[in-house]
Request: fold
Amino acid sequence: MSSTATDTVHRKSTEDPAELTDGFHLIVDALKLNGIETIYGVPGIPITDLMRLAQAEGLRVISFRHEQHAGYAASIAGFLTRKPGICLTVSAPGFLNGLTALANATTNCFPMILISGSSEREVVDLQQGDYEEMDQLAVARPHCKAAYRVLDAEDIGIGIARAIRSAVSGRPGGVYLDVPAKLLAQVIDKAQGERSLVKVIDPAPRQLPAPEAVARALDVLKRAKRPLIILGKGAAYAQADDAIRALVEKSGIPYLPMSMAKGLLPDNHPQSAGAARSLALKDSDAVLLIGARLNWLLSHGKGKPWGAAPKTFIQIDIEPREMDSNVEIAAPVVGDIGSCVTALIEAMGNNWPAPPAEWTAAVRDKVQSNIEKMTPRLKNNNVPMDFHGALGSLREIIAERPDTILVNEGANTLDFARAIIDIYKPRKRLDVGTWGVMGIGMGYSVAAAVETGERVLAVCGDSAFGFSGMEVETVCRYNLPICVVVFNNSGIYRGEETNPAGGPDPAPLVFVPDARYEKLMEAFGGVGVYATTPDDLARAVREALDSGKPTLVNAIIDPSAGTESGRIGNLNPQSALSKKK
Ligand SMILES: Cc1ncc(C[n+]2csc(CCOP(=O)(O)OP(=O)(O)O)c2C)c(N)n1
Ligand SMILES: [Mg+2]
Reply:
């Protein structure tokens, strides 16, 4: 390849430069041809000029302080738009920083393409110690859906087309595209370059379910005495909002939204079983999963949370291998969610029987009593604030402004916010997802603001915020309408632990007490607020959402209010020895 490329450069360099193009231009042209509008990344050798050119050519380029956050931004852009989010990084360390986000995107089924510059193949492959040397393609491969490298400029068009189709078709995920420095500088004939570009036609083709699979699913559902629908983030991704709502309402079946599916139907919908999750899982006899996997978040479909009653599962998913992943799926429905849900609605006909009233009433009563139990706690004015008091005021703000996108990370801060803050519209809640990863806060917030133009409210634990805190500079630099609320309980889970050995070092879970996070935002020209009461907090957040100015509210939370690992403390390994102490 290299001699051909060198020959090409040599031959072409004698011609009129107006007749020539290069790898830099072809990448930008290929992305634009395929409707890509934004690139998230961090510049440096060898991709600095690529970022410059992308901006010059009219793409929006959002330059971050750390590639992981650019990667998270790209991945959530993919979730929100169904187009692959693009993250651009330098070689080895920049690539590795972006790789966490690529792996997270793949795990969460978000379409994303990580494009990384790489060093000279001849040197890398002989391990001769090049600048930022790494066999990136091999490192990326296990962490994404597909990984490709382009070596010839005339293959850029097909390489990008392949990356796009791989990211968005079937089950979406992360794709890695390796672009060696030499490729970027390769010069070829302009007309030839233009001809080599590929516009991806129908990048995520619909996949219709088999009619017999639909009939089987309805048969199970019709016979159920206590049916339940579970909506996963795949259902939110599908953008089949009307069809999903129609199916739920036509069936009359109680539904449970997974965290990022909240808002597909408003959380105050009469069929929502959200506040009666335990009862719904335990007592249901037939469960229709729509874009939700039976992974750890649903206790693998078995064990205590699912109760003793036998369950029959119906599953709608685009990935056939998802079926029977953890338990038997009695009625697999394989296809894209929009097509599957529409097929179910059509096959239900006009006389679909409502589920037994005994069941729907039991769920509704439990929802009602749990909400009544929680309501007074949300109105408390304790100082220092507890999670309920602080989140009670944010809950009202989201109810007033349902278009606001809520980004949420932390342990207690996450688990309480998920339960307390109702969401009213689809794709308005973005959180730590399948891995429960800390650090998505600022990356997701930036992309949510950039991609939707809506206000963003990021509610982050103080530990969670720390993972991406430096990106408040990015928020200020692009003047994005993001209000960050740091739930400052001075630590991970709680802020009052002491060093058991009694030495001068603090315990590993606690931070500097009374840290002034709001000054970080002020350092870059944003608004900082120190809030100690629910009223202070509500006032500051309303002001921020009115003005659209980058704002950080440091919400002081009682260091003793949280619990170990939030709601998933049971996942901490416990040996018989540690129990004895
Ligand atoms: C990348 C990553 N590193 C570490 C963890 C482990 N972890 C889970 S929650 C958490 C922080 C919880 O503290 P905070 O965000 O302050 O929430 P709080 O419970 O105090 O409200 C950490 C470090 C993780 N989930 N992801
Ligand atoms: Mg904390």
